[in-house]
Amino acid sequence: MSGREWYLVQCKPGETLRAQENLENQGYECYLPFHECEKIRNRKRVVLQEPLFPGYLFIYLDKSMDNWQPIRSTRGVSRMVSFGGYPLSVDQRIIFELKRRCSSIQMAQALEKGESIRITEGAFKEIEAIFESFDGEERVVILLNVLHQQQKITLPVTSIKKV
User: Fold this and answer.
1) What is the CATH architecture of 4-107?
2) Assigned CATH for 112-162
3) What pTM did the predictor assign?
4) Residue 104 — very low, low, confident or very high, per pLDDT cuts 50/70/90?
């Protein structure tokens, strides 16, 4: 079993991407989850990709094998998040779920009205349907054929995939 675990790095204000780039250049594996948000710029609504946790990124380290010393002096890095003077690992399942949800949301946002999708969880698992529209950031409206009629159903974005 690998002793590698995910830890949390606090970055200097506005330097999260710089910290990620510099850590990856040193050979560390990092993860910085993003989400899309709408903002108004120059009186126009634009969709931007922003870090899900501004000022923080995850780093995958082995407590005994990796050299932790360069991390704190890396440009853009403020410190390792720790409790009682010791870095506390982040549960692997949290990172797995973040990666799954972020990729599902990005995939689903590429859907267009009328495209075929497959439901991946819940009571309608493995049933094909038609994508209708988005219902907020994390939900979709689909058309499901029930008793020869199309019914509108709202589901989480993470519970569908493109066929």
Assistant:
1) 2-Layer Sandwich (3.30)
2) 2.30.30.30
3) 0.63
4) low
